[in-house]
């Protein structure tokens, strides 16, 4: 609570004794003291709910990866069409709705936004399981993307209100780890259910619990603005144009944006084909892929996420640039490990190498978000995160699977099933360029820092 006391002391000492009580109240409301409204028990309870919401988000998003091969066989579609389904159909509306939702989240009731978003993507995931044609499946997938655009930025904004600054990084790291929980459910549980009961049942299992979670979210999640007031038109809240102009003027933010786009080009793009690679090239059964690879990937992701956040906090105290340089090093080191993994002809060898590569790759993500928060300024944090996530999802998650699938189709004509192996190996070279952008981001951070 040292930060809280310091702010309170500043409010008391910096004002003349004769200042009006209304001015003191206005100043107090303007200060970032929302976290003083809650006890530790309440904070962690709210974080647990947001963790479950994010887990549902990534479960519904990732489950399609392990279902691509059954979908391909049923609808007789190419890898390019699978890339379109797994990436662009989701990403185009995820990105399109992102900025308006972020603007709403900066000024409105974030609890309501998250509840509505959760309801939409859960319903649309259920509809994926009810689809009878590839077109219906693609349409439902578009709806999943539109709904999920309302999850992460409002949730991160709420976490920043629930926790004081000195504890915020740890809270965000835990929240980020929910992506790995969803990943495990998508690959592990989703793959098992698909292998046992069919891919449609896997979609139904992923979507239905979200409807019950939406009720819990609305009833139990707190919105500090209900107590502290909402920004009004004409207040000090920046317009979209002003926020974009301020962010565009920061070279570090532009480097971070470019790096994140390439990062998600791989993480949300090329890597969606790993289950297909294991089934098609290494001839591993679907059930074994879902359990073994899903478990290895999830463990690596949890360790990497929490470890990366912890290491970045320690290095960042010495030099803030390490918040960006650590992800840069992680990306450069990941590239050759993944190339070696895709060169392997043994499932065990692949799992070992994929564990190391996954640990390195995901370990760089929390520091990137921490670095962006450090430079973007408190007045535009939701907008900055939204721009990064939705640009990365549109260009990275949207075109990444499409490009990987198209290259695979082209190489398969000459090399047969090995074409997918070579496509994935080629895509990994982009991680070196990603590391370069994050290195440049770190060099600009001292200039761009803003509270």
Q: Would you mind describing this structure in some detail?
A:
The structure is a single chain. The chain has helices at 2-13, 21-30, 40-62, 68-75, 79-107, 110-130, 134-148, 152-162, 165-176, 178-197, 199-220, 225-228, 240-248, 251-269, 274-280, 286-318, 322-343, 347-363, 365-376, 381-415, 418-428, 430-448. Helix 17 (322-343) packs antiparallel against helix 19. The two termini are 18 Å apart. It has one domain (41-221, 239-448): Up-down Bundle (Growth Hormone, Chain: A). Helix content is 82%, strand content 0%. The protein has 22 helices and no strands. The longest helix has 35 residues, at 381-415. Mean pLDDT is 82; it is low at 1-32. With 451 residues, it is mainly alpha-helical.
Order of helices and strands: HHHHHHHHHHHHHHHHHHHHHH
Q: What is the total tally of β strands?
A: 0
Beta-sheet strand percentage? under 5%
Give the uncertain stretches in residue-range form.
1-32
Regarding CATH, which class? Answer: Mainly Alpha
Name the shape in a single word.
globular
Q: Report helical residue fraction.
A: over 70%
Biggest sheet architecture: none
Q: And the CATH topology?
A: Growth Hormone, Chain: A
Terminal Cα span: 18 Å
CATH superfamily: MFS general substrate transporter like domains
From the alpha-carbon coordinates, what is the Rg to the nearest angstrom? 22 Å
CATH level-two architecture: Up-down Bundle
Structural class: mainly alpha
Mean pLDDT rating: 82
The tally of structural domains comes to 1
């Amino acid at each position: 609570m040292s930060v809280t006391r310091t702010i309170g002391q500043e409010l008391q000492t910096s004002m003349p004794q004769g200042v009006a009580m209304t001015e003191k109240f206005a100043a107090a409301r303007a200060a970032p003291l929302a976290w003083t409204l809650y006890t530790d028990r309440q904070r962690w309870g709210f974080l647990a709910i947001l963790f479950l919401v994010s887990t549902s988000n990534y479960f519904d998003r990732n489950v399609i990866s392990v279902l691509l091969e059954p979908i391909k066989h049923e609808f007789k579609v190419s890898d390019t069409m699978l890339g379109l389904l797994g990436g662009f159909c989701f990403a185009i509306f995820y990105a399109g709705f992102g900025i308006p939702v972020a603007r709403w989240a900066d000024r409105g009731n974030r609890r309501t936004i998250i509840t509505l978003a959760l309801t939409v993507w859960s319903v649309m995931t259920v509809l994926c399981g009810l689809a009878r044609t590839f077109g219906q499946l693609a349409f439902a997938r578009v709806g999943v993307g539109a709904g999920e655009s309302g999850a992460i930025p409002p949730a991160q904004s709420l976490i920043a209100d629930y926790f004081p600054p000195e504890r915020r990084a740890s809270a965000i790291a835990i929240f980020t780890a929910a992506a790995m929980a969803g990943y495990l459910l998508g690959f592990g549980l989703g793959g098992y259910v698909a292998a046992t009961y069919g891919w449609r049942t896997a979609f139904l299992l992923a979507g239905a619990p979200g409807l019950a979670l939406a009720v819990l979210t609305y009833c139990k999640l707190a919105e500090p603005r209900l107590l502290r007031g909402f920004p009004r038109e004409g207040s000090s809240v920046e317009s979209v144009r002003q926020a974009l102009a301020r962010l565009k003027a920061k070279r570090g933010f532009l480097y971070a944006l470019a790096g994140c786009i390439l990062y998600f080009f791989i993480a949300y793009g090329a890597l969606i084909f790993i289950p297909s690679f294991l089934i098609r090239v290494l001839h591993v059964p679907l059930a074994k892929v879902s359990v073994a690879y899903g478990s290895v990937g999830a463990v690596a992701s949890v360790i990497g996420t929490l470890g990366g956040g912890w290491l970045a906090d320690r290095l960042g105290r010495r030099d803030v640039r390490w918040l960006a340089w650590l992800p840069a090093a992680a990306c450069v080191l990941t590239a050759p490990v993944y190339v070696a993994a895709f060169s392997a002809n043994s499932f065990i060898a692949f799992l070992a190498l994929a564990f190391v590569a996954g640990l390195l790759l995901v370990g760089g993500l929390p520091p990137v978000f921490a670095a962006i928060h450090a430079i973007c300024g408190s007045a535009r944090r939701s907008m900055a995160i939204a721009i990064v996530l939705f640009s990365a999802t549109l260009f990275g998650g949207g075109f990444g699977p499409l490009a990987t699938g198209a290259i695979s189709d082209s190489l398969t004509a000459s090399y047969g099933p090995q074409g997918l192996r070579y496509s994935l190996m080629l895509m990994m070279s982009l991680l070196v360029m990603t590391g370069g952008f994050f290195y440049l981001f770190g060099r600009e951070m001292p200039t761009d820092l803003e509270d």
